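Protein record
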Amino acid sequence: MKTTRKEFILVAEDDADDRYLMQTAFHEKGYTEKIEFVENGVELLKFLESVANAEYPGFILLDLNMPKKDGREALKEIKQHPVFKKIPVIVFTTTKNDTEIKRCYELGANTYIVKPTSFESLLNVVEEIRSYWFRVASIPA
């Protein structure tokens, strides 16, 4: 079966409060896309493997600082995979330093966003991310 891109979002985030805020932000913006959550890099890769023969997310929001397998390790594995490497990965983290940003781009990140500190800012970031990756960007099938 051919793998296709679907308009659902995969969020890798270990913090329950951040998951709730993200889900609330997408809901408040009126988005109906399905959001799948995983709590670490191991779960992220297992999830992608479980849907590999059917569909993959429109994009992945990836926290860097997670248990079991952190975001850097997961990013590296995704971008080395023959199919998963096509999935846009947006690093979405509190880590803000030039060395880390550079490292993530070298590992294949498509975008690096520092998590906003207010809910209002999160709403704006959610709107921008979704608009760009679902409406503007051209991504291979």
